[in-house]
């Protein structure tokens, strides 16, 4: 049917899924969102291909209204006083635009690793499918992922089959790497990685292709899907665990610099490179993450904690590297001050000095990436602070401070906290906006809420020494009789679990 024969939105909704516009230009329209409103991920299924009509990706409702206005222009505005009446908000518009990521963590207070924790994280993700978005193919998710401790038993089992000795857990780093799809470019990327590690005195012990099931990947996600491999690196020159993490951080920054001028440079991405943590993620729906990564179905994959994340992309188009968790953080929210934060980070780069870097500060610049998402840049800022020697809790307080001015409790009981915030506000501007942040460096796992408390966060602790945090209750099956503490995080609150010390802290 030609576009100029369409007279109203109501008629348009009764059309078949495909119709043709004048000038041999086409629109493919699927109006499933209007028939199936039970899930937000259907809101993305109105997709413009080539059209003179501007359609908004974020809202099918608005897109149809814009199309109707294009076909049936409104009469010229009159000078009537009725135009001055207050405008009423469109409720359907408001509801269709609402969305937020699904996030959470599970941790064992005794630091006991088990597959049950990994399995519970995957089950929780499956319950959060409604929190994420999908592409027009209804299968390419905005992203989902998990961060866990490194599953050494799983990797030792693989190494023994390859004729490689079991890994020295104290002196081995594991990188989860997205490589270019092209075989030749993959080899080039690997050569760069190996050469940088060798230059830094590290030895590559082997490459492991990550087993995946591509049948569960959506069309658009499969088109952009990278070659996913893991690299194992021996670190011999460092003894302190923090120095090892810092050395791996420097190596990754050097690799990123080396490939930045290459045409394929943005196809190389480290999901994680650490001695303690690893991230499995992708442009996937949360309910298929465990089906995609075969490792996550293996019961010898054990961890004492897991951070899980289902992404609802609001500020950037979905891409494999932008799925979360990031290297340290899982973020539900938006950083509204991102441009200012990036500008100030860049302006302060030349003044960065710390003895922990041993004069190598220039090698880890730049700290931000304007092409990344707000979450990715916040993660980079947190990574810089943590690798410089600050604890994750302190780093979160610097980056996302609570509303401490005229705070009655802080003023009377904790004036040193006010002094802390006053001191650091001159060194780091607040990364402000609605945010629930989950974080882990492998020793600590925690969550904090922004100063306005604009994202949901529930926590509960059980008698069998498990601590849970999630953006909603009911995602993990827990025996209610075992719950000894539960509540919700309020504005500026933080909960942390010290995996090594066996303690948890609720900070407000």
UniProtKB/TrEMBL annotation:
Its EC number is 1.4.7.1. Residues 101-500 form the Glutamine amidotransferase type-2 domain. Its cofactor is [3Fe-4S] cluster; FMN. Pathway: Energy metabolism; nitrogen metabolism; Nitrogen metabolism; Amino-acid biosynthesis; L-glutamate biosynthesis via GLT pathway; L-glutamate from 2-oxoglutarate and L-glutamine (ferredoxin route): step 1/1. Keywords: 3Fe-4S, Amino-acid biosynthesis, Flavoprotein, FMN, Glutamate biosynthesis, Glutamine amidotransferase, Iron, Iron-sulfur, Metal-binding, Oxidoreductase. It is an enzyme of class 1 (oxidoreductase). GO terms for biological process: ammonia assimilation cycle; glutamate biosynthetic process. PROSITE patterns: GATASE_TYPE_2. The keyword Oxidoreductase applies. One of its GO terms (molecular function) is metal ion binding. The keyword Lipid metabolism does not apply. It holds the Pfam family GATase_2. Belongs to the glutamate synthase family. This is glutamate synthase (ferredoxin). The lineage of its organism: Eukaryota, Viridiplantae, Streptophyta, Embryophyta, Tracheophyta.
């Amino acid at each position: 049917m030609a576009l100029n024969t369409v007279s109203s939105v109501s008629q348009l909704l009764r059309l078949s899924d495909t119709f043709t516009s004048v000038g041999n230009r086409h629109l493919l329209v699927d109006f499933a969102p209007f028939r199936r409103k039970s899930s937000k991920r259907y809101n993305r299924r109105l997709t413009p291909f080539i059209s003179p009509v501007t359609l908004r990706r974020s809202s099918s409702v608005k897109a149809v209204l814009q199309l109707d206005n294009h076909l049936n222009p409104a009469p010229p505005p009159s000078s009537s006083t009725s135009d001055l009446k207050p405008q009423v908000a469109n409720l359907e518009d408001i509801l269709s635009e609402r969305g937020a990521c699904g996030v959470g963590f599970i941790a064992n207070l005794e630091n006991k690793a088990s597959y049950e924790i990994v399995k519970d994280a995957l089950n929780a993700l499956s319950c959060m499918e409604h929190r994420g978005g999908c592409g027009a193919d209804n299968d390419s998710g905005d992203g989902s992922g998990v961060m866990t401790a490194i599953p050494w038993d799983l990797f030792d089992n693989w190494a023994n089959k390859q004729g490689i000795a079991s890994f020295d857990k104290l002196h081995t780093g594991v990188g989860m790497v997205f490589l270019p799809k092209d075989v030749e470019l993959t080899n080039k990327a690997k050569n760069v990685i190996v050469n940088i590690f060798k230059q830094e005195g590290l030895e590559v012990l082997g490459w492991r292709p990550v087993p995946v099931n591509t049948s569960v990947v959506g069309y658009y996600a499969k088109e952009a899907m990278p070659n996913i491999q893991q690299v194992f690196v021996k670190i011999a020159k460092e003894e302190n665990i923090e120095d090892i993490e810092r050395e791996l951080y420097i190596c990754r920054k050097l690799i990123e610099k080396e490939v930045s001028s290459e045409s394929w440079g943005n196809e190389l991405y480290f999901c994680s490179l650490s001695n303690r943590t690893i991230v499995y993620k992708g442009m996937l729906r949360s309910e298929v993450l465990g089906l995609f990564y075969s490792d996550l179905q293996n019961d010898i994959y054990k961890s004492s904690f897991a951070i899980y994340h289902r992404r609802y992309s609001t500020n950037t188009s979905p891409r494999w590297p932008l799925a979360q968790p990031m290297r340290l953080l899982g973020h539900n929210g938006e950083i509204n001050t991102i441009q200012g934060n990036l500008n100030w980070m860049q302006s302060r780069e030349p003044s960065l000095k710390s003895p922990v870097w041993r004069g190598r500060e220039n090698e880890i610049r730049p700290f931000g990436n304007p092409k990344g998402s707000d979450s990715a840049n916040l993660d980079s800022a947190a990574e810089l602070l943590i690798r410089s020697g600050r604890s994750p809790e302190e780093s979160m307080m610097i980056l996302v401070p609570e509303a401490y001015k005229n705070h009655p409790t802080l003023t009377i009981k904790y004036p040193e906290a006010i002094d802390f915030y006053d001191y650091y506000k001159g060194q780091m501007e607040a990364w402000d906006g609605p945010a629930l942040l989950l974080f882990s460096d492998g020793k600590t796992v925690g969550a904090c809420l922004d100063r306005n408390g604009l994202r949901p966060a529930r926590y509960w602790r059980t008698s069998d020494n498990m601590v849970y945090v999630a953006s909603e209750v009911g995602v993990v099956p827990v025996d209610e009789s075992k719950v000894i503490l539960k509540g919700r995080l309020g504005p500026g609150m933080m909960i942390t679990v010290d995996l090594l010390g066996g303690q948890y802290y609720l900070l407000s």
